[in-house]
Sequence to fold (195 residues):
Amino acid sequence: MATEVLEQPTEERLIRRRASVEEFWSLPESVLPTEYIDGEIIMAPSPTVPHQIVAGNIYYALRTFVQGKEGGGWVFCSPLDVVLPTGEVVQPDVFFLNARQTERTHKTDRVREVPPFLIEILSPGSITHDTIRKRALYERMGVREYWIVDVKERKVAQLVLRKKHYVLTELGESDVIKASVLAGFEMKVGELLGG
Fold:
């Protein structure tokens, strides 16, 4: 699936402009996805209805699972800035922080941790951004598990970090996805995506 996704023709509809990190932090607060990667401010249009339905389904399933675990951490959803050690700022659609990270984060205005597990849901204008640029960034930052969700094709690319590189598992609607970071979480892809 990820190979298919990576090879999809895409019309990227992101607004990009070179800027300093200071310029990024001086932007007014917005609910539109706004990130800072490689010295560029990257703004995307608001998500589509199908994107938000899937984001809500995934958030609910993971949040319900994590709440049932003692000391399990927390599940967050976009828009929320995640400031990486490099100074880059991303807004994953859904992400998990373990208990220690959550405790530190509750005392700050932004998430200043590398999430061990995060999910990006593809939008028509962000395929290249999510499958190539952010994939490379997350791999470099040591994100242990990264799901790329293709709403249109109803597939998930599950990338698990092994020896500093992602190992890909492609899952279709009838497959069961088993989280690596959240041991014990498993669900049929079709159920996870809803619909």
